Structure formats: C-alpha cells, structure tokens
Amino acid sequence: MLSVPSRVKNAILPSGKRDRTIPIGIGRGIRMRLDFAHETRQFLGLYEIEVTPHLRRLARPGATTFDVGAQDGYDALIFAKLTGAAVASFESDPASVHGSMSTNFGLNPRLGPLITSVTGEVGSAVGQLSLDDWAFGPDGFVPDLIKLDIEGGEASALRSAARVLAGGPDLIVEVHSLEQEGECMEILREAGYAPQIVNQRRFFADRRPIAHNRWLVAEGPHRPRPSSPASRAPAVGA
Q: Of 5, 35, 75, 114, which residue has the fewest beta carbons closer than 10 angstroms?
C-alpha cells in the first residue's frame, strides 16, 4: 500500500514518463525521461544525496570516470557534466542500454558524446566483463574515478580491476550486504586504500528492500591532487 506522502505526490504530479529538465541539485540542467511515480528524487536532486558531497569533490574537471551499474545513465550524465571528460557507462541489461540510457544520453547533446555505453556483466568470473580488460583494451581508458553499484557483485567487480586499482583511482562503492562490505573493505585495504563508510540518511531515506545498504568512499592512495582550482579544466554544462 502506498504511503500518504506517495499518494499526495501521485495526486499532484503528472504521471507517465516525460522528458524533463532537472531543476535543482547535482544534476541541475540535465534532461532525462522521468516518471514522477518512482523517479521524483532524481528530479528534485534528492537521490543518494548522502554521496553527493563526495561526487562533487571527486568528480573533478578533467577526471575520467567509470559508472558501473549505470541503469538509466543518471550518474554517467552527472559525471560528464562535472568533469567534461570521458565516461564509461557499464550496464548488464541490454534493454536499459538501448532503451532508457540511450534516450537520456540523446537528450543531452553536450554530454552524451562524452559517454561510452558498455554492455556486459562486470565481474571476475568466467564469462563476465573484467574492468581491467576493458580499461586496458583498444577502446578503453584507465579511470580517475569509479562509482560502482551492482547488487551482490561489488566485490567481484573490484577483483576484476586489480590493474586499475594499482593506479589509485578514487572509488564510491555501494554495498548491499555485510558480507559484500567486508570483502570490498579487504580488497580496497590490500590495494592501499582507507575506505570511509557513508551511511544512509536517517530521515526521508530512499526506500531500499534490503537490510544492509550503504557506501564505501575511498580516495586513491597514489593519485596526485590538483594544487589549485585555477589549474583545473572547466566542467561542461548540460
């Protein structure tokens, strides 16, 4: 049964997917095909705001990025906007890649050309797509920042990126169980990182169907930092 706030929202806001421009927050100016029935938080800049300060800090102008578990391309577009640099958008569902993701990238002609869509299930098992193989392949690049959100596969994805992690990219990893969190912590610490745990906000939290869900934020231990804002390239507007 819908909550009272959800019923009020559905009564006030127009239903159905429509092309909309995000008016506020980290995604301000980005256009996406959104349905207010279940994508209002993206529109209002409230989606995963726990990690928004880290995204703003780590997605520096000129930084190349991997968005692993891209779904509809929301984060990939934010990376392209903030960095003005190459983004690789990894998604295991071909329907999403050729559907909502392609649509949303097409709605942003200044940002879409910066993003490469990669179809495949990322991980270290046989038949999965290794981040190392893609990054060091003929069409790839080594990222400065990785955001990873693949439920239940986060540790396997990190194991597939041993060569990439050796270069010290910054990471934001969403974990979906205590077991996965422990494995990811171990992998990152062995690679020289000191991960920081970011918990979900207590009030008006996103609805999540699992008991344990939060983020690990890990700054690259070997990566030099820009000396001043003046040395950075400008971000690209939406």
A: 5
**Is the separation of the CB atoms in 75 and 67 below 8 Å?**
yes
DSSP 22: -
> How many domains does the structure of the chain reveal?
1
Helix or strand (DSSP H, E) at 75: helix 74-83
**Cα(115)–Cα(210) distance, integer angstroms:** 31
CA distance 29 to 230: 24
Tokens representing residue 100 in the block: 């909502």
CATH number at residue 77: 3.40.50.150
d(CA 59, CA 79): 6
Nearest to 103 by CA among 79, 72, 81: 72
User: Of 149, 170, 136, whose CA–CA distance to 214 is shortest?
Assistant: 149
Q: Of all helices (H) and strands (E), which one includes residue 171?
A: strand 170-175
CB 188, CB 161: distance < 8 Å: no
Instruction: Give pLDDT tens digits for 185-216.
Output: 999 999 999 999 998 766 555 566 666 889 99
